[in-house]
Amino acid sequence: MLCILAFLCLPYWIDRVKIRIDHIKNKPYELIVCEPVETFPVLMRLQADGECTFRGPVQAEIAVEREFDHLKVSGRVQVPIELACGRCLTSYQSAVDSTFRIILRKESARQPEVVEDETELCDDDLISSTYSGDEIDLTHEIEEQVAMEIPFKPLCDDDCKGLCPSCGADLNSNSCSCSKEPINLKFGALKDFKITR
Ligand SMILES: [Zn+2]
Ligand SMILES: [Zn+2]
User: Fold this and answer.
1) I want to staple 161 with a disulfide (CB 3.0 to 4.6 A). Which of 31, 104, 149, 171 is the partner?
2) Which residues surround the ion ligand 2 when the cut-off is CB under 5 Å?
3) Is 73 helix (H, G, I), strand (E, B) or coil?
């Protein structure tokens, strides 16, 4: 029964991230989004691949306004996540909290390669995209923003000591008696080599 209910609700969730163009008048159109991760296919794939675990809904505050011949979307997106440290393998809580700006141009019959005026808009945090029809769907923009903020090599702490390569002890909470000598020996050998020249 619950499954059927969830299925029936799904189109409603997805529609929440769409904005009708005619709703965007002279002042910014504001939208609050609070959507389960299931709404975002890219994020579901990241989670299935073990990149991270989402610990709550994706929340976003978005403002869309007209600017010259395009739409400017400004937003902030937040979602709690759980990551596994790349050094000590411990799971830890983190969060994505990112602001973004996107310029949306109406898709026209124009050839796609005629985009040379695009360069003048290229800020670091500014993405350029297109829309067509009478509404814009921000599902993909939101999920891309979140995906970009998920660290490729997560660290529970910048100073995480990691695991001992010999015995596997977590060096953040334990010490071990394994020798760290091999690294020093290598440097020693190199020094001798230079001296004998
Ligand atoms: Zn760690
Ligand atoms: Zn050890």
Assistant:
1) 171
2) 164, 166-167, 169, 176, 178
3) strand
Its pTM stands at: 0.73
How many Å apart are CA 164 and CA 184, to the nearest integer?
16
Q: How far apart are CA 89 and CA 196, in angstroms?
A: 44
Nearest ligand atom owner, CA of 177? 2
Which bound ligand lies closest to the C-alpha atom of 180?
2
186: pLDDT strictly greater than 90: no
Residue type, 77: V
- Tens of pLDDT along 165-180? 999 999 999 999 997 6
Residue 197 CA to ligand 2 center (angstroms) comes to: 37
User: Rounded to an integer, what is the distance from CA 188 to the centroid of its chain?
Assistant: 44
Identify residue 188 by its one-letter amino acid code.
Answer: G
Give the number of the ligand closest to the Cα of residue 88.
1
Closest alpha carbon to 10 in 31, 32, 41: 41
